[in-house]
Every structure is written in C-alpha cells, then in structure tokens.
Amino acid sequence: MGSKKKEIALQVNVSTQELWEEMLSSKGLTVVDVYQGWCGPCKPVVSLFQKMRVEVGPDLLHFASAEADCLDVLERYRGKCEPTFLFYAGGELVAVVRGANAPLLEKTIREQLEAEKRVLAEGRERRVIKDEALSDEDECFSHEKNNGDDEDLVSSEKACTLAIIKPDAVVHGKTDEIIMKIQEAGFDILTNEERTMTEAEMRLFYQHRAGEDTFEKLVHHMCSGPSHLLILARTEGTEDVVTAWRTLMGPCDPHVARREQPDSLRAQYGTEMPFNAVHGSWDSEDARQELALLFPGFQFSDQIPESAPLGKSSRQIWSVFNPQWGWCVSVCVCVVWGGGVGY
Prior knowledge:
Blueprint: E1 11-13, H1 17-24, E2 29-35, H2 46-56, E3 61-67, E4 84-89, E5 92-98, H3 102-122, E6 143-145, E7 152-156, E8 160-165, H4 167-171, H5 175-184, E9 187-195, H6 199-205, H7 215-222, E10 227-234, H8 241-249, H9 254-260, H10 265-269, E11 278-280, H11 284-294, E12 298-300, E13 316-322, E14 327-333
Parallel strand pairs: 1-3, 2-3, 7-12
Antiparallel strand pairs: 2-4, 4-5, 6-7, 8-10, 8-11, 9-10, 13-14
C-alpha cells in the first residue's frame, strides 16, 4: 500500500522569533491571525481559509497564527479584544484587517494575492504599510494596567451589545452561518469566545425570570453545551447597535418569528422556546450589565447620555477578573426588572 501524501497544515502556529522570521521569508502572501492567549485563534474564519486554500493552492497563499504575548514583535497587539489579521508579503506588512469580518478578509486576501503576483511576475513595487491604528492618538482598543494591579482591561470606544449563539444552534453546526449573517448585516464582531456557561452564571444572568415556569429549563439549556459569546458593534447605518441586533434576531418565539419576520435569525435557526438560537440584550443599559457579568475585563466608553433614563433593570454588577488565573468575582445588587426582557 502506497504511503499517504503528508498533509500540509492549514495554519502554522508561530511561537518563536525563529519561526516568525521563517514565516516572513515565505514566498507569496501570508495571513497571520494575531490572537490573545485567553481567547485563542479566531475559529469562525477557518472555513474561509480552507476554502481559499483549496481554491488558490498552498504555493503563494499561507496562513499562520501567533499569540501576541509570545513574540516581542507583536507587543503592541497585546490585550486587543478583537481579532487582528496581518498580511505579509516579501517580509513586509502590506495590509491589516481587524475583526472576524469574513467578507472583508476574503476581499483583502484576493486583492493582496493579486498584487503580490504582479510583484513577483512583473517586478512591480510592493506597497508596504504601517499599522497606523496602533498610534497612541488613534488607538480604539487599548490594553491598560489598572493602577499597577494584575487585572487586564480591554476597551472599546464604540457602542456595544452582547450577543449569544446558544447551545442549540452551536450543536447543530450553525455558528459559522449565523456569524456570517451578522457580519453581512453590518456588525463588527469585537470578541467571539466559545464558552460553556456554568449553572451559577446562568442563574445570575436570568435571575429576572426566576419565578417563571420555564426558568429551570432555560438555565439547563444554556449550560447544556458550548455557546458563542460575541461583543457586537455597528459598522454602518444609523440604527443603534442594540436595536439593530434585536431586529436581526427577530421575536423571541421562533414560531412567531417565522410568521412575522421570516428572514430573522430566530426564524431560520430557532425551533421552539427556549431553543431560539440567539440571545440579545434588551436595551443599552442591559447590554452594559450583561457585558459586565460575562466579560468583566471589558471596558467601554459611556454609551448612555447622563440625561437618558435607566433601562428596565435596576441591577448593578461589579466584577473583578484575572485572565491569567481564569476566575472572576461578581457582586450583584438588584432586583427590579420590567417585563419584556429577551431570552
């Protein structure tokens, strides 16, 4: 029996300076997923990379991943809450894409690959760039030390909301489809973390529904397997991010969603309550509180004017998170909550 041809890894993990220099010497275009150790490489784009590798071949298109904390050259990318993709050709930086934006990634890969082919075939000058977004004045996402303490703080100047792709959608393999639809609808995915929620987290998260008959079923479902926790911002349009996300989700009940908003995510991917595929914050105040609970290290600029009324929840959450040790302490004081809060 003939020996099988050795399979080429889709993404090479670059963990040392020597491997980094070897990567830079590769002929063609190399796309590097720069990630943080606490969240790992960006999984939603793997299917795109696989498709591009099959289409283009491995000779001129390469994919790599590198943890920012492992390489001095990536020091300024440490602590960023959104994925960063660096494009290298001829050992030089030629493009940067921030966020798990598959359509933009594919467009950039195609454009930069064609440009590099012209450089190699015709001797054209390679267009080299600097990552200007890392300048102190323009930096949107920053990693800070809180008064010399160990807590890592990640910040965003954009208005944000929480999105959860629930276990029912994840177990049926719909995560990538839903993420693609989110991006196509004009959202920026600042963070995408796969996590299996604990019972304690979900009892606290859904405490406003503790008196309902469906409470135990809801908590059990949310702890039954991995979810994808996303922090969303808006890249286009005038509609605020919370309202835009709730519109894309559709009504809570998938049966109602299929009748009233058949193009919504819950209509397409939900089955019945509580298996409605996705969760979204009810309003801006809820978004802040839910993010504080599930992403204690995430800090963002004040999204609600001081004159604006509070949302439907009066709970306040203070959290301390140490990503190195992987624990957090949350203290929650509540409990006045109006009706209509989303699942």
